[in-house]
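Researcher: Please predict.
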Amino acid sequence: MNRLPSSIYPVVDHPRWVEILGGAGARFIQLRLKNLAPETLRAQVIEGLEAAARHNVRLVLNDYWQLAIELGVDYVHLGQEDLDEADVAQIKATGISLGISTHSHEELQRALTFAPDYVALGPIWPTKLKKMIWDPQGVERLTEWRRIIGEKMPLVAIGGITCERAPSCLAAGADSVAAVSDFILNPDPEKQVQRWLKATQGKN
């Protein structure tokens, strides 16, 4: 199987979290930046890359594939709507790894036509952080996705996942478990990284 850098996958909204969580042991972090002026966006991605380099983190940039190519980000993550505009061939030509969000069988089949480096399924449980038109998928859908995509394609679970729920996602077929609020809203995010690492160790 093509392995992902880690079984835990924090998704964060500011590069300071790459420093904090990366310093605590997270090695696979997505930077999801929204509604920033172009110069601020670029500066924050650079800040995230610098923190990633300090802590041996594989950084994922959500959406901004052209900036990822320009700055040499490790991974780009695209939603279904992003695929309408992105030049996936150009992304792949640069050697950047590609992740794609899926919420339905139709979206999964579309994602697989791009031969991504991983697919994400969500929301597994209800999430209040992001308004979703999709109902919770449940861990059983992870097992279904694993059967469809085979053993070589990495699978990421996301949506309403907590440290306590993470092991069940890995047991159901996910290779890595993503979360936002369970990291960045935790009063002790560094300790939370350690809890997640311990909870997911050897589960996939």
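Model: The mean pLDDT is 94.
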